[in-house]
Design a protein that fits this description.
single chain, about 160 residues, mainly alpha, 7 helices
């Protein structure tokens, strides 16, 4: 991706964050993880539960935020010719084998651990790093450093140190 396009996308994300967190627009931090228990509550009829009532506004907002993120990424991938539907990415196939079921099991485990951690932390990396980082919250910046460290350690462990 060209540097000017990356700068433009970064600027758009920054402007979006200013608009989204503005008290005159949405007055919400950027986040994603609350949309999952929100969707589950809607799906299983748990709207009257105490927890659902606590996350109702944030969950609804984040659900539509994720829908828009998915659609925007999909349209961008189509426009730039990067769309490729694949259950087993080439890096995974080269290092872990071509088994689709093994890939799906590990994807589920990884996704489950990520959403569990996000809910335990009362927010996801989107909220902590993007929103908190743009507000220069020290806790968010420290969190970002540890996310990067843990990502490198996990990638080295999972994919091997030679990669």
């Amino acid at each position: 991706m060209k540097l000017s396009l990356k700068i433009g996308i970064g600027a758009l994300i920054g402007l979006m964050n200013v608009a989204v967190t503005s008290i005159y627009f949405a007055d919400r931090p950027i986040g994603a993880s609350t949309s999952y228990p929100y969707a589950a509550g809607q799906l299983f009829g748990l709207q009257s539960s105490t927890y659902f009532r606590q996350i109702d506004v944030a969950g609804s907002w984040e659900f539509w935020f994720l829908v828009g993120t998915f659609l925007g990424a999909f349209v961008g991938a189509l426009l730039f010719g990067h769309f490729k539907l694949s259950v087993v990415p080439s890096l995974w196939a080269n290092l872990k084998g071509p088994s689709a079921s093994k890939r799906l099991v590990w994807a589920f485990i990884g996704g489950f651990l990520l959403i569990l951690g996000a809910r335990l932390a009362d927010g996801c990396t989107s909220g902590h790093i993007l929103s908190g980082g743009m507000e220069l919250a020290v806790s968010s910046l420290v969190f970002a450093v540890f996310v990067m460290i843990s990502a490198v350690v996990t990638a080295r462990y999972f994919y091997g140190a030679s990669q």
